[in-house]
Write the structure tokens for this entry.
Amino acid sequence: MVLVLVITLFACEGNYKNVKKMSLSDGAPIAEGKDINFKYTDSGKLVTNLLATKLLDYSNLEFPYKEFPNGIEVRFWDEDGKKNTVTADYAIQFDNTGLVDLQKNVVVITADSVVLKANQLYWDQKNKWVFTDQAYQIKFKDGSYNDGAVGFDSSEDFTTFLSRKNQGVQLVDKTKIENAN
């Protein structure tokens, strides 16, 4: 009798993970969060603060991701303590690739007063790169701006910015050009 009980106990324990997976309906998130206020620190310094009213965690799927269906606000602080902010009405973060897809009313405001507005923006966290293939509007700290019709690729700090097709105003410091020649 004891032997049968022990075998049954271990058999049930081994299948616990499978039973847990079966209890979820197909495509359901493994976890849901409300009023998220996630803070990431490094060496005691606040580096990132993620705010969202709703989080759906699909890390149980073959291609895991996290979805923020009601929008997201992310605040970043650089090494000098300067704050950068990203907001969007919808966001999805793909765990395996490190890619974040921000959609609807995307606004990026950097500590250097660069303001980017777009309907969709991708952020490659691993390569520290942002890009879109849709229209955008960006205003740089010197007052120049681009109204892009097709999209752009850029480093996440906007020091390298490659626009595909745009029109705008570019301010040029004439003294720097004369001194370079």
In short: The mean pLDDT is 80.
